[in-house]
Design goal:
2 domains, mainly alpha, 9 helices, 0% strand
Length: 185
């Protein structure tokens, strides 16, 4: 028996809070549909934003958030932000200079804007991956120019050390804000 999406929405509206497993079991027993079909329909409704699914396993402390596997992107970002200045300052000759170029390009053209986009749009379904990528590159270019403009006003000026460290501070700060936004929204 096929189970229509309207029937799922009506069934959900009549039920009190229930987890996905309980919902699938309830719909399966009441309507005789297959579990996989129900799960696909629920997923489709969630993707179309007809159905809102919440995570009841909310983490309570900052350390819980930091150690949660869903936030591994934050540790990857932190590693890249820490590793890039080290590579930029320590590597000057082949063959590792190409790794330096790759990391520096990622550091300038993608990471700052990516973190800004994560702060502005913390939920995955708010933007398509291609939109997120394009906005990240454009935002990075704007943030790097703004950082350079601010550094130009300072007595130190635009130098390799000040630019690299300023971008590290900016990117990591935006990453922390994105982590907070993703775990509170």
């Amino acid at each position: 028996m096929t189970l229509g999406k309207n029937l799922i929405v009506k069934s959900i509206s009549r039920l009190s809070e229930l987890d996905i497993t309980g919902l699938i079991g309830k719909l399966k027993s009441n309507h005789g549909a297959k579990s996989i079909e129900i799960a696909k329909n629920i997923h489709s409704l969630w993707k179309k934003m007809v159905l809102y699914l919440s995570d009841h396993d909310r983490l309570s402390t900052l350390s819980d958030h930091l150690l949660d596997l869903r936030n591994s992107w934050f540790w990857t970002l932190t590693l890249l932000v820490a590793m890039t200045p080290l590579v930029v300052f320590c590597v000057s000759g082949p063959p590792f200079v190409y790794f330096r170029y790759f990391l520096a390009s990622l550091y300038i053209l993608f990471l700052p804007g990516s973190m800004l986009i994560e702060v502005l749009y913390p939920k995955r379904e708010e933007l398509d991956p291609l939109e997120r990528f394009a906005l990240s590159i454009g935002s990075s270019l704007v943030l790097v120019v703004l950082t350079g403009s601010i550094l130009d006003l300072l007595p130190t000026g635009i130098e390799l050390i000040s630019t690299t460290l300023s971008l590290a501070i900016l990117t990591e700060s935006l990453g922390i804000l994105a982590l907070i936004r993703k775990n509170t929204s």
